[in-house]
Amino acid sequence: IDFPDYPVVGVSSGSAERYAKWAGKRLPTEAEWEYAARGVLIKKNYPWGDQIDSTKANYGSKYKGILKTGSFLPNEFGLFDMSGNVWEWTADKYGSNFYSTSPTQNPKGPERSRFRVIRGGSWHSDTMCLQTYFRNGLPSAWIDFAVGFRCAKDLK
């Protein structure tokens, strides 16, 4: 079955990285992901502001599954589904206390960890997981029906 308008899910972080490389791109760092999710709204809880809004994201099992990309309006950077729909792998390894000792400018995650960072929450997440600053980690080989990815590309 072909679903070209839906996010890709059910891929490990390694598979996501290999696809991104094949496409001439890469996975975003965690810091890049958060910057992109916030758009122009600095220090806001969600990509659209401080209050949860069920008309702005797919979460909490309201829609009973993944929706087409772009089912909700984009954020101020023109990016769709930065909160809800599917969790997204980032390039960074996960450390629960990493930010207590990390650099303040574009930290890259700990050097060693068997977990990778996921961001954004998904269609079955609660509101806490959709917050732009919420982070979690999964084993690198984890494959899940609610975890996908998006690609990033360096500006030349």
Identify the strand order in the major beta sheet. Answer: 3-2-1-4
Overall pLDDT metric? 91
Q: How much of the sequence is in beta strands?
A: 5-15%
- Taking the alpha carbons of the first and last residues, their distance comes to 37 Å
**Spans of 5+ residues with little confidence (pLDDT < 50)?**
none
What would you note in describing this structure?
The structure is a single chain. Strands 3-2-1-4 form a four-stranded mixed sheet. The mean pLDDT is 91. It is globular. 12% of the residues lie in helices and 12% in strands. By secondary structure, it is of the alpha+beta class. It has two helices and four strands; from the N terminus they run ααββββ.
Provide keyphrases for this structure:
4-stranded mixed sheet; globular; alpha+beta; 4 strands
Secondary structure: elements and pairs:
Layout: H1 13-22, H2 30-38, E1 87-93, E2 115-119, E3 135-139, E4 147-148
Parallel strand pairs: 1-4
Antiparallel strand pairs: 1-2, 2-3
Write a brief caption for the model.
The chain has 156 residues and is α+β, with helices and mostly antiparallel strands.
